[in-house]
Structure formats: C-alpha cells, structure tokens
Write a structure and sequence with these properties.
- 2 copies of one chain form a homodimer.
- By secondary structure, chain A is α+β, with helices and mostly antiparallel strands.
- Chain A is built from 18 helices and 16 strands.
- Chain A folds into 2 domains: 296 residues, Bira Bifunctional Protein, Domain 2 (BirA Bifunctional Protein, domain 2, 2-Layer Sandwich); 89 residues, Rossmann fold, CATH 3.40.50.800.
- The first copy, chain A, is 40% helix and 19% strand.
- In chain A, the strands form 3 sheets. In chain A, strands 1-5-6-11-10-9-7-8 form an 8-stranded mixed sheet. Chain A has a 5-stranded mixed sheet with strand order 13-12-14-15-16, sandwiched between helices.
- In chain A, strand 9 and strand 10 form a beta hairpin.
- In chain A, helix 7 crosses helix 13, helix 9 runs antiparallel to helix 10 and helix 10 crosses helix 11.
- Chain A is globular, with a radius of gyration of 29 Å.
- The relative contact order of chain A is 0.10.
C-alpha cells in the first residue's frame, strides 16, 4: 500500500507558504478595491450539474470539462448501448452527472437565476475561486487555477463601465504595475462592419481582428478573405481600426445606427470619468474585439505598459447572460483579473513587498530546559502583541539553532540564557546588521512599533 | 438547451455575500492567531492521484471519495472484464485516475514527502481549504465544506502541544465563544488498558469509550463485553476514566511503562503552560479517546461550555503520518477547527459583529444627469478614503431609490440635488436615526473616522 514517491497530479501544483502569502497579497489588494466600490463576495460550489455547464463553452469547452463520476454502482444506470459500443462521449451523461467549475461566469448566471428573489438588483458581486480545465498540462498552463471576476447585473447604466475602469486603475496602481486600459464597444465594431458592407460577416470579422495581437495585418486580411470578406473591404476594416479619435470614427460609421449608439456609449463613459484622475492610461482602441460572443456593449482589456507581456485582464457588457437559464433581458457588465499572469509579472519585476518574504519576525533560542520554558513564556507576550514569533523546539545545540534561524531568514533572534532569565531580559540579535543588545520584553515589542 | 430552473447540485450550497463575509471573519480570526504562532499557509490541489487517497480513510472513506472521470476516450483503456461484468468498483481504477480531496491530512502528508528537500523542519503550516465527500446529502451535512487544520511536523517537542492549546484558547476568546479544552494522551489510555489487563484489546476499548458522549455507561460496557473484554475489566476501565487528578491516575497505572510516559508528557505540557493565563478552561480528561488510530500521544478536543453543542475541533500527536508515503519516524502534532459548527454556533448566539451585516456604508442618490455625474465624482473621493460607497445607477425616481436603500440596509444616504452641487455639499441622511444635515465631502469622510 505504501507509495514511496507521491506526487501532485500532472497539471496541478502545491503552493508553499511564500507563494500563498504572495498570492493573498494580490487578492487582498483586489478585494479591498472591490469592496470600496460596493462589490461583495459570493461563492458557488466547486461542481455544478453537468446540464448547467454543457453547451456553454463550445465544443472544445465541453471536452475540457472535468466530469465527476457518479457515486456507488454507477454502471447500474449506464447507457447500455454506449457501453456496448465503447462510446465514451455517449456514455458520459449516464455515469457522470456533475462537472467541475470551468469558469465563474456560467455559475454566476445560474446563481442569479436561482437566487433572483433573494437578491437586490442591481446586484454587485465579486468572486475569487478556482476553476478546472482538462487542458493538456504544459509549462505555465495548469488544470487548476484561480479566477477573479467582478460583475454588476440588473442595470444597463454606463456608470458601471466607468466604475470598472476606475477599479482596474486603482488595483494596478496599488500593485505597482503600470498598465494601459483599452476600451472599445462591440456596437462600434458592428458599425465598422456595416460601414464596410459586411454586416452579415460580423462574427468572422471579430474573430479575425482578435488575432491582430499575434498575427500580421496581412495574415488577418487573408483570414478575412478566406471567410468570405472581399479584400478591399478587409483593408477598409483595418484602416478604420487604426482610427484614434472617436469623433473621426463616428464620422466614418455615421450611416450605422448601431455604430453611433456605440460611440454614444463610449462618450457617456468618458463623461463619468471626466473628473477622475486615472493613474494609468485609458485608451480608446477600435481594434479591441474580445473573442467572446456574449459581449454586446463596452469591452475592456488591460495590458502591462511594457510590450510583450500579454493581457492582465478583460471584460465587457453583456445583455443576455442569464437568458440560457430562462431569465432574459438582464443586462450586466463585468471584468476579470488574470491572477496567474499578475503573479508571474510581479515576481519577475520584484514588485512584492520585502516583508512578505519572511514569515516569522522573532525566533527564540534557549540553552536548557529552564531557559526554554522562560523563552516560551516571553514568546507568548510577543504573540499577544501580534508579533509573529517562534521558539526553536530544542535547547542547547547552538549550531543547529543558528542553522534553522538562517534557513528561515528570521530578522530577529531572541537569545535566552541563565543571565537573561535572572535579569528578566532578552539578548536580541538583528540578523541583518549582526548587532546584538540586551533588552526587556517591552523594549523588544516596541522594536515592532507595538 | 435552455434550462429554466437551474440549481446547485444536491449536497452543495451557494454562499451569498453576507455568509461569505461572516465566514471570512472566522477564518481571518483563526489565521491571525496561527500566524502569530509562526504557522503559515499552504495549499494543495483540489484533486490528488487516486493512489494517494485510496486506502487511507478505511472502506467507507474509499466509497465516499469523489472520483474524476478520465478525459477523452476513457473507455479505450477501461478494464474490459469489469465492463463485461458491469462491476463498477472493479472498473473505477481504469477510468478514473484522480479523486477530490477528502480531508487535509493525507494531502499534507503527501506534500511533506514530496517537498521534504524544500522545507525547513520543524515545518509549521496551516491549511484552510474545501474537502468533498460523497455522503448522502441531509440537513446540515454537505458534500463540500471547509476544513481548517494547523500542524507542525518534524519535532516531538511537547512545547507544540502547549502552543496548540494556546491557539485554541486565543481563537475562541477572539470569537467570543466560551469553550472547554479537553486534554488526554493515548499512552495513558494504553496504561489504563494494561492496568485492566486488556492491552490486546486497546483499539476495541478506545472505539467503545469514544462513544461515551452519545451512549450510557451501561451500553459502553455492553459494547466492550461484546468485543471480548470481561465485564469486571470494562467496569474498572470506566472507573479509571473518571479520575480527575493526573497524580491519582499515575498511581493507578504505575505498572504500565507506556502509561507513565503518557503521564509525563501531560505534565510537561502543563509545565510549558504554567505561566499562561488561559481564558478558557483546560481540562485533563482521561475519557477523551479520539477515534482516529493514527494518534500516538497527546490528544485534544474543544467543546462549547454550554452542553449539547458538540465538538468544535480536535487533534493530536501522530508519529507516523508520512510513513505510508515512504518517510517513517516523522513526528507531528496538529489540531483542526470545525468551521461549519463554529459558523452555526456564532449565528445562533448572535456572536458576529454588527458591522458585518451591512455591506456598503454610503449610498449616493441624485435627481438628474448632472447631479448624477456630480455624485459619481464625490463617491470617488469616499472610495479613495476606503469607505465602501455606491451610487444608485438611475436618477430621479426617488421612491425606487429609497426602496433600494432600505433593501440593502445602508447606514448613510448621500443626497445630491442642484443646491448641493452648486454649494459643493452633500445632504447626508442617517438611516437609523432619520436625521439629515448638509455637509462638505470632507465632513462626510470624517464621519467614518478617516
């Protein structure tokens, strides 16, 4: 029964204290801003009924859903024909009724419909939970990771678009990451499609221009022509996408009613932000498309100002998120934060505060049983003052104790021998400067401003 | 495709903001105490390889493990014979390689073995994560719930037992729950078994006395006799379990070497605690058994002082937790907090602070487009001062706005009309007292002590 080399499953990771503490630093920064803006947390179960999830993420998504095997004698109710034919896909619904959460959006839509009579609308919520995807594990891509979403549902006010932009700005300012916040509106993209006479190819157009980040303009034009858009129209589209001024673009798409509605919405968002001093750049970018088809109004994306670092978050306005669960016409808008990318970026740029590196603040060491008991008592006083304190469990063995102190990188060592015990003092060594001096417990506590 | 009545799976729950905020209040209280004592967080994946979990929780545990169906064409590698025979249990290992976390102990043991070269021992960690069990759903019993464990591994120092008692004491004092902390030692139970000449029936004895909480003494004696313990010995066992004084018990089990070792360990724990002022009662209770067989030394249990409320936590010393993964002789000790029970108890006794009830602190309402923009600007200043602020998205419609304000139980309403805008002020209504007065934004901020 004994396994001698147990490992986490492929595609998953353990998090050691240093990583958890740093990740919580990011989440706490985000949480604080969310709550200032009146968003509060909800949590949904790790698994949902498969019927809630299936068909919501496209064919690939269905394939990447982790399914939970039914308990007990699951074969008793298994689809016999699928079993006979060894047809895994056909068999699945009869032996697995639940699936692990794939994102936070669909469970949120289900939540809103299920609890609509308990909620007060507009309902503002944030949600920071893990999601699971059966992607092939590879470097930097995991089967389990955190998502961090904030949404308001039940109002079409453009004030919320302005709030979400302020939230992005405040969070990244707090984390010390300089970003560009890109803003566009799906209705403007409709306007561009109509101005270029390809209104019926809107979806194909957005899918193609969504790739402008990774592909050359030429390749995007080729993709559009392959999808049935004439080359001259594809070129005109790309020309319009380069427009920097909203007025200029409004003129170009002035024959599209939807397009002008998009322009108006963008202007209204700017009206709300007029008196706001953003710490990061807000950029109107008509080339921003966001692949997801459920967006219907403003869309956002955040990128680190330094090129090549990819997206740190995105989102937008949707008008029909809950329709699939029988509650139509509920407008909402939301954004998400790419927690994994933010973590990697902050690590790479050394943006985490130094004090997160060390866990405990003071380590006591003693020479014999009596001084060890004395050290335990003194440590209790520090702990009561909210100073993170530890005592090495063995006494004597000075070398071993010092080795431990160095390994955990503790900033202060509190040394207790007979003399300290008799004079009711402690010898405190600053492990950075090497300085050592004897002091009372109150003096030690005051070193930490307590 | 549209489902019109989507629900959470049976045995699982959504958590609305009020519940998440209250649960986080408990977790934060626990976390702060853990960190003062030098324990830091780790996280392990939601699923483990099934070989890591299987056989660790007994036969019932194996049955209650949620298994994750392999991705892709899982039937291709399915056990053909088991398929043919419709044998669900035999088939499972070939179609499900992963299982959801059943507790935090086994994953922690796996973690320690996997990362032994990265960790500094003694290693002190806490872990607050969800676990999943395929129990039949019923009132108060869920398939998904949080566990909250704290352990130190890699030292047999009894100082840690004393620390864990201090942690229990500090956490429950902070939460306002009066408890009794019960303390015993498995070696003392061995001593009692040996003193009653039933050393070979030790496990049966502990299983029986573990039921003293729920069964009469007579029934426990009957159970012991049924397990092959003579009635006179069973009676003597129960007599010894009633001993309140450790000295008296030491005398009664003086012929048992193991028993005396247990007495010595208990005394050492009291030595460390000698100068500690506990806020709750610490009670030596030789009748405390703790069912789990991996405990080898001190054991703990916490009960609310008011009778009938059951256990709020428990734990103990184990000497061989990691042996099953090929790392023997690693002593550790840990306790856990019954977060769900603590939550229910605090709710029942109204122990949550009032300020957790309301989310936002100030709600702005306005009369027209211009005052709405002005309100948005003022709200931004409050938010920057970390005051949880919201603006109703629609202007005018006074009745609708007031209805919303009442529904969310906001303590302060900030009303903005033409006059307020012209004089750069806000009319602030205290929703509890009903008082209303006009003030500057700085005066409003100072209401919150900012």
């Amino acid at each position: 029964m004994a396994i001698t080399n147990p490992q986490t499953p492929k595609g998953t990771r353990d998090f050691l204290p240093k990583e958890v503490i740093r990740r919580n630093y990011i989440f706490n920064a985000i949480r604080n801003v969310f709550e200032q803006f009146g968003f509060f947390p909800i949590e949904t179960p790790s698994f949902e009924n498969l019927e809630t999830l299936t068909g919501k993420y496209g064919e690939e998504g269905d394939r990447l859903l982790f399914k939970v095997l039914n308990s007990g004698d699951f074969l008793a109710k298994a689809d016999r024909e699928a079993l006979q034919n060894l047809n895994s896909i056909a068999l699945t619904p009869s032996i697995a009724k639940k699936g692990l959460r794939y994102d936070l959006t669909v469970p949120f839509a289900r939540f809103v419909v299920q609890h609509q009579n308990e909620l007060v609308f507009p309902f503002k919520r944030y949600q920071i939970q893990q999601v699971w995807r059966a992607d092939r594990p590879q470097k930097g891509r995991y089967q389990e990771f955190y998502q961090c979403d904030v949404d308001v549902i039940g109002s079409d006010s453009l004030m919320y678009e302005a709030e979400l932009i302020q939230i992005y700005d405040a969070v990244f300012a707090k984390l010390g990451i300089e970003v560009k916040i890109l803003l566009n509106n799906r209705k403007i993209l409709v306007g561009i499609a109509e101005a270029c006479h390809i209104g019926d190819k809107f979806v194909q157009m957005t899918i193609a221009i969504d790739k402008l980040d990774k592909m050359s303009e030429e390749s995007v034009i080729v993709e559009m022509t392959e999808k049935g858009i004439q080359e001259k129209n594809a070129k005109k589209i790309l020309e319009l996408l380069r427009t920097e001024s909203i007025e200029e673009l409004a003129e170009a798409i002035k024959d599209s009613e939807t397009g002008l509605k998009g322009v108006e919405e963008i202007k209204k968002v700017y009206d709300y932000l007029e008196s706001t001093e953003l710490k990061n750049a807000l950029v109107f970018d008509p080339a921003l498309a966001r692949g997801l088809n459920y967006y219907t109004g403003c869309i956002f994306e955040v990128k680190a100002s330094q090129a090549g670092l990819g997206s740190l978050g995105g989102g937008g306005r949707y008008d029909d998120l809950t329709a699939v669960f029988g509650k139509p016409d509920t407008s909402g808008v939301g954004i998400s934060f790419g927690a994994e990318r933010i973590f990697d970026l902050m690590l790479e740029k050394s943006l985490f505060p130094d004090e997160l590196i060390t866990g405990i603040q003071v380590l006591f060491i003693a020479f014999d049983e009596l001084t060890h008991l004395y050290a335990f008592k003194q440590a209790g006083k520090l702990r009561k003052s909210s100073i993170k304190t530890d005592i090495y469990p063995e006494y004597g063995k000075m070398k071993k104790q010092m080795k431990f102190a160095n390994a955990i990188q503790v900033p202060y060592l509190a040394i207790v021998g007979d003399e300290e015990m008799q004079t009711n003092t402690i010898s405190v060594k600053n492990m950075v400067s090497g300085e050592q001096s004897r002091m009372s417990i109150d003096e030690l506590i005051s070193l930490f401003g307590k």
